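User: quick one, fold this
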Amino acid sequence: MDTTLTRPAEAPQMRGFSREAVEALSRAKGEPDWALEARLAAWEIYDNTPLPTQRDEAWRRTSLRALKLDDVRPFGATRGLARSLDEIPAAVRAGLEEGGEGGRDLRASFEASGTTPRAGLLLQHNSSVLYHTLNEDVAAQGVIFTGLDEAVRDHPELVQRYFMTGAVPPTHDKFAALHGAFWSGGTFIYVPRNCAVELPLQSRVYADADAPAVFAHTLIVAEEGAEVVFIDEFVSPTGEGQGFSDGAVEIYTGQGAQVRYFSVQDWGRHVYHFNTQRVVAERDSTTRSLSILLGSKLTKSNVESALDGPGATSEMLGIYFGDGTQHFDQHTLQDHLKPNTTSDLLFKGVLRDRARQVFAGLIRVEPGAQKTDAYQANRNLLLSDKARVDSMPKLEIGANDVRCTHGATMGQVDRDQLFYLSSRGLERSEAERLIVEGFLDEIIQRIPLEEVRDRLHAAIQQKMGLPAREGDEG
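Assistant:
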């Protein structure tokens, strides 16, 4: 097996997706033969799969007529690593401090500097990883935390084993296939058996307003008894043209392992965003995920858990806040493959102006998956008469000894609550802010990094047309 990488070539400028573009991307990265072969196999699936239309059940409420795939630049030039955060553009590192992540006494260094503790940090600008650090003690335990391009070079056996093989294969749908052909950058995390990473790992992908397409891929492998917390951020300003993002998140939670995954998507309002996140959970494992959806023009996402071992547990949380004409379409799947598994899903969202949310959630219990315990809830708060929610929770039960419940609610701000707060001297806008934050707070407080919580509070302020409170970060 050839695992040698050549010196990356300069990326050619091109538009639209083609087999030639796949080959040019792989050549520019200097990839080994097996990586190119995987890309070309995914391209064949993409090329032979029709673009979804509103005649397809999963796309009935989401139109792609305005999406111009021929105008997309599939990738751009790469850059080298920076030696410190000071060398990185201010917008990319906003709100972050170096804080000694690479030092041996990590917690003490953070307490001394007053920064938020993390075990490692990875920053990606467009398709290039610019900065990467990991605590020495954590690395000494065999933990791998690096860019996916680097992982292809340095850990090919692990990448080949897990990358788009079981969690999100290219056959998942047309956009997963496109991702498999053009993925670029992203994060690879490997936590060996019985290793616990006490502090969070964090990654941020920042794209310029006129950036080429972003195809970031997150791959997390936690072996038996391992523990890890990871925060994944995706940020860009709003541009005037059409932006495009097509991502994938694969999480493998081994026997008895514990994984907490937090995703924050705040793309500019010109971005079409497609993403599939899937957990493969083995026996007696626990996976907790939180998806925060704030940005983009249009988002079509899949959030899925495959409970593939007895005793596996998955908690799936979601927050979304849409304003203007934003369109969010989220499909969730709690797939119970083995007996004695548990899943709990709660997605809560706020919509104002003409924003629209589509939620389609499915609890699926395979034949033989007895003693399944599954719950699904979608709660929506509407701040405008013209905001719209389509919520469709579903059950597909193939076993006869299960407990599965689901429900959905939607409604406007309670007038009695507004009256009470107004009687205490608050203006209506401030009263609504308190109600919205209270509605979302039970989920926000589960985010382990204070800086992420602060940015979420600031985003809520901005979406409600209010000035940021003192202490919030923009």
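User: anything notable?
Assistant: Residues 414-474 form one domain.
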